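One chain shown below:
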Amino acid sequence: MSELTAGVDEAGRGPLAGPVVVAAVILDPLRAIAGLDDSKKLSARKREMLFLQIQEKSLAWSIVEVGVDEIDEINILQATLLGMRRALEGLTPFPSLALVDGNHAPKVGCEVRTVIQGDRLEPAISAASILAKVFRDRLMNTWHQRFPAYGFDRHKGYPTAEHLRLLRENGPCEIHRKSFAPVRKLL
């Protein structure tokens, strides 16, 4: 059997609100997916289209979210690494190699290589990037229904000028990361 390689990426390390979402994908070499790229370079429509193709054509995929409470408890880097481990452990079959976007590697039961700008360079990481981004954007749109005063449907929890203004006006809600400075200052 050939070596199974998983791509791993996250969405949502920088926001002030919501979970960090991590995805892991093992692409099927016999079922090509055209148009894979860094999720940030693709339109929302293209990401949605690729999201379905990745789920249909991959050998395995896994998406996990690490919630605000865990982020606040262990910090965003540790929460991201925890999410990476959980996403990889959610793959069946389990990979022999994990290619991780960035320069931090989770401790997991296979070889791990970090790839700077991997979401642009490695198709499996691009696929994971797309799954994580689409899943997280959908979550933030759902949170917007519950907390419309914050505009989560527009900025997805990132510290935009609009979000910072709305945060000052309304105070933090339950999905704000209390360990992040702009939120902590308002508590």
About this structure: The CA atoms of residues 121 and 186 lie 40 Å apart. The first helix runs from residue 44 to 57. The mean pLDDT is 97.
